[in-house]
Amino acid sequence: MTTESAWIEKYKAAMLETDWAKVWALIQPAESAIRERQRTLILDRSGSMAEKDEMAHALSGLKSLRGDVLYWKDQGESPHS
């Protein structure tokens, strides 16, 4: 698995998980993988603008997902119910 695909796989795992009790544990590794890829691109001065945009959108999506999970934990129910 390349570093490019590693962040995508971890992002997908967090976003597609249907068990809300597991989502929280998947968010941090996904964010870390994205930030690591961003650091690599900065150091190598590489990567496409499309990938950089995808990573920015992915971090935004994970931030929103984190909010949903916090709400769910506070309410004791799934945010989709």
Q: Tags for this entry?
A:
single chain; 81 residues; mainly alpha; 3 helices; 81% helix; elongated
Question: What would your notes on this structure say?
Answer:
- With 81 residues, the chain is mainly α.
- It has one domain.
- Helix 2 runs antiparallel to helix 3.
- 81% of the residues lie in helices and 0% in strands.
Concise overview:
The protein has 81 residues and is mainly α.
Break the fold down into its secondary structure elements and pairings.
Elements: H1 3-16, H2 20-44, H3 49-75
Helix pairs in contact: 1-2, 2-3
N- to C-terminal separation?
36 Å
> How many runs of DSSP E, i.e. beta strands?
0
Structural class: mainly alpha
Please tell me the overall pLDDT: 90
DSSP summary: helix tally: 3
**Share of residues in helices:** over 70%
Uncertain segments of ≥5 residues (pLDDT<50)?
none
- The rounded Rg comes to 14 Å
What portion of residues belong to β-strands?
A: under 5%
Q: How many strands, which pairing sense, and closed or not: the largest β-sheet?
A: none
Order of helices and strands: HHH
Shape: elongated
Count of folded domains: 1
